[in-house]
Amino acid sequence: MVQNKSVIFLKHPTEYPVAGEHFEVQTKELHANLKDKDVLLRNLYISLDPYMRGRMRDTNKSYTAGFVLGQPMNGSGVSEVIESKNDAFPVGSIVTGMVDWSEYSVATGAQGLRIIPDGRNSKIPLSSHIGVLGMPGMTAYSSLQIIGQPKAGETIFISAASGAVGQLVGQIAKRQGLRVVGSAGSDEKVAYLLNDLKFDAAFNYKKGVILENLEKCAPEGVDIYYENVGGETLEAALEVMNNHGRIVACGMISAYNNPNPYGIKNLMHIIAKRLTMRGFIVSDFAAQCAADFARDVGGWLVNKEIIYKEDVAVGIDSTPEAFIGMLNGKNFGKQVVKIADL
Amino acid sequence: MVQNKSVIFLKHPTEYPVAGEHFEVQTKELHANLKDKDVLLRNLYISLDPYMRGRMRDTNKSYTAGFVLGQPMNGSGVSEVIESKNDAFPVGSIVTGMVDWSEYSVATGAQGLRIIPDGRNSKIPLSSHIGVLGMPGMTAYSSLQIIGQPKAGETIFISAASGAVGQLVGQIAKRQGLRVVGSAGSDEKVAYLLNDLKFDAAFNYKKGVILENLEKCAPEGVDIYYENVGGETLEAALEVMNNHGRIVACGMISAYNNPNPYGIKNLMHIIAKRLTMRGFIVSDFAAQCAADFARDVGGWLVNKEIIYKEDVAVGIDSTPEAFIGMLNGKNFGKQVVKIADL
């Protein structure tokens, strides 16, 4: 009998989740029992994303369905079909879609799965399909255009700029002729922004005063703030925003694990400077942007006009630590877990 | 020689302005010395508005020109032309535009003045031209449509709902088939919202817990929050907003006189609920809305389909106290000062 390791959700955390208390890896025997249209997946990569912290909350107010206590956690993944009762997904297909954080999982009715053409002979890493070509990439691409409305010559400030979304936002903004400023949590990440992604300016938010660093990096103010972190960084951005600026509210990771988050005192700038701050989730924009996104980002990636850094944890056992590390900003680039080789 | 009383700006306040310290009434002899195109005005009404607190700040970051130390404060007014070197504004004309907080003032080149047709025989109070038909009315009308995008059946929550802007927002929203909820600072104001303006629900924000009151008044959540106050009221609104809600950021009076304003901790709702929060100043929208505004609000007012409460202080000497009172929410309805009878 095949043994199957899964990351099981145990308890709703109120602060940082703790492995063994809120989630843990458990081993069970695999019983696939496929019904008509089902497929059995051998999972290769799973995506770890900050928004998933919201799915751990004990509330029905989170914007995506919560994880179920006692069940495997789940998210975007790349998998191989190893057993199939669905003609559209023959054995051997490489697919992407929502999968369990498990070595093997059943996709009921193959719902939401999509075949990756040439998946077995891909010119780009398979993990790209849950990163730069997946949900984080679509998030960056769609929201920058629809909410940010970038114009050449403007300045954009991106927080968590070396992360899954930020690094693509910055590179697209550079292509569109903006001055690009980023913040990140280590000197190594800042060097990546400046040297590899060619940002115009960047700073380590853990060193010095955020507002002073931002003022130095954006002497002409900020027209678009791409918000991933919240807290003092948002407050600093509000101080330096230009009139009619746009705040793309993608994430506020500083608040996710804190039951008493930092209070923002200078929202008056939203009125005085006539700012627009707009939240979104990627599914709001996916349909209208899918074709453009695939053509643009897919093309840039194949032609090596953009780069995309991933932080790859190896093995299902590494998942809890990688997830907690990502919530603490320890990841350098988009966090994925490689569960198995193809 | 004619004596002329004016309210002179003396000092930038950091908290609530104090009469005699930050501004005071002074009497000087009137020396008109009109040049070509100038007119001399006998001022009848002046408008006192919360945004003017921003013009008292010692900063160039306020969104309108600051008051000038040692000079009269100014704002919208209604005046009679009593001396004229401008053929477009003959003696006896009733005009509205930016005027000094003075009994008499010179309008250089008659800049920005507009004649009120039938001003001497008006069917509506002359003060309407600085209230419901003036800047506050245009503010309410334009921003509700452009930012709020109201749809019949939705719920709108309006803070400072009996104020200059709020009372018109509420009545327009009722006309458009929305469920209208308001907050105000006294039981008398709440009774006005319910009985006179026909709001669906209203509460006194000084009694009980704001969030609990709001939840009771808006059991199906809030689709549009018309923001005039900031602070805890904004925080409560964020809690009850529905997905895709809009926040019309018109004012945050709770923060104007406080160098250390209340910090907003739950902005994460902007992302989770995909909210849009947008600031504006009325001049952003005035051109595109002027014709519709004059037709709609002017028509409703003449036909008594809407009502509009004013709080009228009498005499230029009453101005400092009335202004401070307005910043404290003591006004009941739109605050004006009647300086003289026609």
From TrEMBL, chains A, B:
Per the record's keyword annotation, is Endoplasmic reticulum included, yes or no? no
Superkingdom, natural source: Eukaryota
Q: Which UniProt keywords apply?
A: Oxidoreductase
- A single Gene Ontology molecular function, please? oxidoreductase activity, acting on the CH-CH group of donors, NAD or NADP as acceptor
InterPro entries, sorted: ADH-like_C, ADH_N_2, ER, GroES-like_sf, MDR_fam, NAD(P)-bd_dom_sf
Which residue numbers delimit the Enoyl reductase (ER) domain? 20-337
Pfam assignment, any one: ADH_N_2
Instruction: Quote the protein name from its UniProt record.
Output: Enoyl reductase (ER) domain-containing protein
